[in-house]
Amino acid sequence: MKLNTGLWQGQSMKLNMTQQLTQAIELLQYSSQELNAYLESKALENPLLQLESVPFEERNRSRESSGMSIDWIEEVAVTQSTLWEHLNSQLDLKTLTNEDRNILSLLFDSLDDNGYLPSNVESIFEVDDLSRYIEMIHGLEPAGIGARNLKECLLLQIGRDIEAPKNVRSIIEHHFVDFCEKTWKTIAVELGVSLADIQAAADYVKTLNPRPGAGFAVETPHYIRPEMVVTRNRDGLDIALLHGNVMKVLYNKGYDSLISASEDEEGMKFLREKRQEFQWILRMLDQRRTTLLKVGRCLVERQEDFFRHGPKKLKPLTLREVAETIGVHESTISRAVRGKYIGTPFGTCEMKALFVSGVGKDEESASSQGIKAEIMSLVNKEDKQKPLSDQAIAVKLKEQGMSVSRRTVAKYRDQLNIPSSTRRKRYE
User: Fold this and answer.
1) Boundaries of each RNA polymerase sigma factor 54 DNA-binding domain copy (predicted)?
2) What is the pLDDT of residues 186-202, one digit of tens each?
3) CATH topology of domain 360-423
4) Domain locations along the chain
5) Are 211 and 115 within 8 A, CB to CB?
6) Cβ–Cβ under 8 Å, residues 113 and 214
């Protein structure tokens, strides 16, 4: 084999990712909040670009015209105390030494987000009479705080409730594992009670709080603003963009006279570049709105039954199908729906949630989300004394035109956090 070296001419085509093209792609995938942050950063760099927040009244008119209900109270931030602050405020009502307060404060710091002390708290804190301090925490609100495990947490709450069922404390204290695994016949024989009594205890335990400290967890609120909203009318379905979510982009006309009168070539070159950038941003914003509206209209057309009748009617849909319909690449659709929400007659949902896989190979195959919704409906309506098995659910789904195997039903049931038929059975 001979290897020759030399220079040859050739032609090829490739996509050159310019800075503007890269920014155009980023602009499409931004949510309203991200887009506002991007525009604010550009306004700091470009003196010709001015931003104006959409007035609250105009934002409301935009939402009301789209059929969205308005509640001004949702715009008000909530002030919430932490668990540490809540527990410390209760110590002010007690007569304690400084040493007591310091030790209790250290124990408060060791509580996890659910309000539990570490299971090995005795080996962590070398404190005399540590059990006395733990008992003091157990006496604080909310009930169950300072427990070292779930069993202790439930017992602390049961101990404070004078109306707790007669046998519930004995069941949790001495038969906790059997109770959780629902092997209740063993408990019934040992305690000499009926299965109905244990069922009453189980119903009561469900009213207790297994995470007493979770209500004080301070998280940064995540506000969701839909990009568009779908409403029903006599003629069909309407979809509209909520323009009030994005700040208004205005041109600073004060620089026009400066550009025409200035003799500084460098300054004039800078301003001309910034004017071109301003015009480009306007074009990209308009293109973003057009693309989102095309995608939204296609979703309404393909998922019309969902917008009319709810999640049970969600059909299988892929990014490629939408991309082929509106004539773009499927990566464009992926960017267009990323992190964005759509308002529907059944609440606000992620746009990407409207793209679901199908079960079956024919055109009328049901979506996985639709099957899950139907499984949930069947379980809610079943006779709790004779709950449906996975095979029985599969048979009922087949009667409704959803051909699903028992194994698939079991998988979807697990994903929905629905217990097996044995664990769902009630004893009245």
Assistant:
1) 269-426
2) 999 999 999 999 999 99
3) Arc Repressor Mutant, subunit A (1.10.10)
4) 23-68+224-353, 83-216, 360-423
5) yes
6) yes
